[in-house]
Amino acid sequence: MGLSSGLLYFLTAAGMAIIVSGLNVINFGQGAFCMFGTLLCYSVYRMTGSFFLGLLAAIVVSGLFGGYVTEAMLRPIYKRPALFQLLLTMGVGYILQDFFLLAWGNTMVTASIPKALDFRINLIGMPFPFYYIFLIIISLCICAVMLYVFKKTKVGMIFRAIITNREMVDCMGINVKVMNSLMFMVGISLTALAGALNLPVTGTQTAAESPVLFTAMAVLIIGGIGEIRGAFIGALIVGMCMSFGAMFFSQYYSLIPSLMMVLILLIKPEGICGKKIEAK
Asked: Which residues in 220-249 are b (16+ Cβ under 10 Å) and which e?
C-alpha cells in the first residue's frame, strides 16, 4: 500500500515537475486540480457505472481546462515576476474549491472499487487487494511512457530544449507558447488522474483543502524541483515512510513528508536528483 500511495504522489509531483521545468511556474492550484479529477471521476462513474470512463473524463476535461488557464490567465503574465504567477495559480485553486462546494455540496466524496478490479491475489502467502496492484502497474506504465517521450521522441527533445534555452527554441521557429500550453495540460492531466485513481481509496472532502498539494510539494523538493526521475524516487521514499509511519506512529505520520523535506533542505537543498545551483 505504501508503494501504491507513493506512486500516486509521483503522478501529482511529476505533473508539477513538468510545469515547473517547462514554464518556470510553481502551480499552487495543483491540489485543487487533483480534487477536480476525483470529483469528475466520481460524477461520471455514478452516471455511467464505468470507472474507466470516469478516469478518461478526469484526464480530458481537466487537461482542457488547464489549457484554458494557460492561454487566458498565465500567458499574459509570463514576463512578470514569479510572485504574480504564484498568486494567480493560488487564486485559481481557491476559485475551484469554491466551485466544488457549489457543484457537489459540502460532502465526503468516495466510491467503491470497480468490480473488475475488486478482488484479492496472494502475494507472499498473504491476500492483497488487486486494486493497489493496478495502481502500481498504471503508475509505472505512465512513468515509462514519460521517460520514453522525454528522452527518445522529437516532442521530448523540444521540451528539453525549451527547459534549457527557451529563447533559442523560439528563434528556431518553434511555437514555444503552444508547447508551454501543452506542458501545462499534461501536468494538470497527470494530477487529475492521480485524484481519480484515489477515488476508491480515500476519496475527497469538498470543503477541505486538498492535502495532496503539500505532500506532492514535499516529494518535489525531496527529489529535486523539475526532475521527473527525482519525483519518482522522492514519491517512493515518502510513500513507504508514510506507510510504516502509519503503523508505528499513527497520530503523527502525516508530519513525515514535512520532516523529510526539511531534512533534505538542510542536507542537500537541491534534492536527491536536482542540479546544484551556484550562488551569483
From this structure: bbbbbbbbbbbbbbbbbbbbebbbebbeee
Alpha-carbon distances, residue 198 vs 231, 261, 265 (angstroms): 18, 23, 29
C-alpha 16/C-alpha 21 separation (Å) is 9
For 17-62, what is each residue's pLDDT tens digit? 888 877 777 788 888 898 999 999 999 999 999 999 999 999 999 9
Residue 62: name the closest of 31, 90, 86 by CA.
31
**Distances 72 to 65, 92, 112, 185 between C-alpha atoms, Å:** 10, 12, 37, 13
CA distance 215 to 228: 16
User: What one-letter code names the amino acid at 108?
Assistant: M
Cell of 110: 468516495
Distance CA 192, CA 98 (A): 18
Judge contact between 219 and 9, C-beta under 8 A.
yes
pLDDT tens for residues 189-233?
A: 999 998 899 888 888 888 776 667 778 788 888 888 767 777 888
